[in-house]
Amino acid sequence: MEVRGDVAVAVRCAALAVVGATLLSAPASAQARRFEGPYTDGSTPPPRWLKGNTHAHTMESDGDSPPEVVARWYKEHGYDFLVLSDHNVFTDPAALAHLVDSTFLLIPGEEVTSSFESRPVHVNGLNVPHLVEARTAESMVATIQANVDAVREVEAVPHVNHPNFGWSFGVEELRQVRGDRLLEIHNGHPLVHNEGGGGTPGMEEAWDALLTSGKRIYGIAVDDAHHFQGEFSRDRANPGRGWVGVRSDALEAGSIVDALDAGRFYASTGVELDAVVVAPTRIEVHIRPRESFRYTTTFIGDSGRVLAVTGENPAVYEPAGPLTYVRAKVVDSMGYAAWVQPVFVEETSGR
Length: 351
Fold this sequence. Notes:
TIM Barrel; 2 domains; 13-stranded mixed β-sheet; disordered N terminus; alpha+beta; 3-stranded antiparallel β-sheet
């Protein structure tokens, strides 16, 4: 791909959390490009993906099982970490210390649960030290902001939950909120309307609208699990439907939530990634293949515009034309997906 000598493209890659990621050497014409992000140059062993869920409920609020049963489900199903996020309840993971070991971590959390004019406002707090009191304010935007701020004030990490639940708020409100870097783009609960409807955009469309407006926000996938007993069906809020793969140096709460806050992760409903490579002239997504599965990767830019589609693995895109961001979505032949976080592109005059 030819790069104009008078244009330098600064790509901020904090959102691409990569195991085995490598910054490839740039050709002379591309040396003006600079990268900011957590990429290994191959001189040190890369961190691995840590699989986790940041949204799950127990009998301490409206789940159907005690905390130990919930935590054990995730441990036994190969998760590296779990955040218990009961509604306005601090479910202390210290009581479950016997489940924590070198392969599994419980991170303290809470779903800070408020409302404005009967419309729900739910903000998860990740790695909260104690109960965070829910807040209300004079408008929807102010109420969302107040609860994001409440989480930040205790040095925890917020993520905004299921805006389409109760058709509560949308892009216009979220554009005005500050300090929120994580947004649920996939929630496994059957009543949250991930796909939108009736003129209200789905969460992926809303994400693109926010990114196009200049807001730097990362997309998270969660279970929002409530039902661990009885039937597992699409009409129940069962576990295992949405998770994140986090690029972290350690199985440690601070390291994991800092990585999430910086966008060093991918979101998934089942597809696993091996690596994402960002080079001066291309982006590569390396998919961890499953036998007999096929994969389609779509590279997406401003306003949700499809930039390229490929069935190859690795999936490769060479950016062309004016862009402010590029993200990728991988869908397998069973319909499961993985979302790669956006690479932000800034065009500046070269020297």
